[in-house]
Design goal:
The chain is α+β, with helices and mostly antiparallel strands. It has three domains: 61 residues; 81 residues, no CATH class; 154 residues, Distorted Sandwich (Glucose Permease (Domain IIA)). The protein is built from five helices and 14 strands. The strands form three sheets. Strands 3, 6, 7, 8, 9, 10, 11, 12, 13 and 14 form a ten-stranded antiparallel β-sheet that branches. α1 packs parallel to α2. Bound molecules: zinc ion. Zinc ion (ZN) binds next to loops.
């Protein structure tokens, strides 16, 4: 038996006391020990808990930041794609210019970007690296484009005469036509057999003005006599322009002819109007560009779309690739009535 006494500080107050059996005392001691152990464990583990709390919030922040970075990266990726598209169309445009000016394409390097440059990037490469690579490639491409632009500008300055005569604008006002038949092999709407279309057909309202695509001279204006050349007779009212020694343009199925043979014309001058004469099912302009590759050679038809710089055709790369395919298919040579000289 234990006696526990409480002595108040004030001696006038009574001393308080109570008795504990040995068993109760042991229980109290055991309970005290358990509380002690629990307190100790708490003291040891508390910092770990705080740390893990801290870590989880850190992780949350990191996740958030990661998501943000991903978004930024995706945005940059989209911007890069847009820039890439612009660079590609600028490249096609400049190749088109080099091609029609005819002088730069053989000088090598500048005009020729290797085809299929889309490098096959493995999926394991991190997106950021892919984006960086693309950015670097765009950078070098744009530098090459700038160099080509300088070269072209210099060429234009040095060959002002040539650049004025090269057919390079659309023979119909922009917005007034629809391309209804492309250049090349096609099924003829009249004979239903495969034949070669030496130009393009631009459907337009009857009477739409037809413009000279470059400075030149009228070498034929009128209708070919049926006896002399039936295929050219089918062209209806025709104007043929010679632009220097290298280029010829043909305008067929015209309604009115507003120029006479021998007349000099300037780029943009009205030479006639769209009509439905000859073998034609509805008003349209049949437009041809013929290029003499060597002096004295027969001028060969090329896709006139290449020689239209003031209008953006769909897929200009395809157009340019097709233009490099040689040799040309069979075509009707210029009739003797067209006096180029
Ligand atoms: Zn046609």
């Amino acid at each position: 038996m234990y006696e526990v006494q409480f002595h108040p500080a004030d001696i006038r107050k009574q001393v308080r006391y109570f008795f504990l059996s040995r068993r109760t005392a042991r229980w109290i001691a055991a309970a005290g020990a358990v509380v002690g152990v629990v307190l100790l464990a708490g003291l040891v583990l508390a910092p770990l808990g705080v740390q893990s709390l801290f870590l989880s919030s850190e992780l949350h922040i990191l996740r958030h930041r990661n998501a943000l970075l991903r978004e930024v990266l995706a945005e940059r990726e989209r911007e890069l794609e847009a820039v890439q598209k612009r660079v590609e169309s600028a490249r096609a445009r400049q190749q088109q210019m080099s091609l029609i000016l005819g002088a730069l394409q053989d000088s090598g390097g500048l005009g020729g970007f290797p085809d299929g440059q889309t490098t096959s990037i493995k999926v394991t490469v991190p997106e950021a690296v892919v984006a960086l690579r693309r950015a670097l490639r765009l950078d070098s491409e744009s530098k090459a484009l700038l160099a080509l632009a300088d070269e072209l500008a210099r060429f234009v300055r040095e060959h002002e005469e040539l650049t004025r005569i090269v057919p390079s604008i659309c023979p119909l006002p922009i917005g007034s036509f629809v391309l209804t038949s492309p250049f090349g092999d096609r099924i003829s709407p009249f004979t239903n057999t495969r034949d070669f279309h030496a130009g393009i057909d631009l459907a337009a309202r009857e009477g739409t003005e037809v413009l000279a695509p470059g400075d030149g001279r009228v070498v034929f204006a009128g209708r070919f006599p049926r006896r002399r050349n039936i295929r050219w007779w089918r062209y209806g009212n025709v104007v043929v322009l010679a632009h220097g020694d290298r280029y010829l343009t043909v305008f067929a199925h015209l309604k009115d002819i507003l120029v006479r043979r021998g007349r000099r014309v300037r780029r943009g001058e009205v030479i006639g109007t769209v009509g439905n004469t000859g073998w034609s099912t509805s008003p349209h302009l049949h437009y041809e560009v013929r290029v003499r590759e060597r002096p004295g050679a027969e001028p060969e038809p090329v896709d006139p779309r290449i020689y239209i710089l003031n209008y953006q055709w769909k897929a200009p790369e395809v157009l340019l690739a097709a233009s490099r395919r040689a040799p040309g298919p069979a075509f009707d040579p210029l009739p003797s009535l067209v006096r180029v000289r």
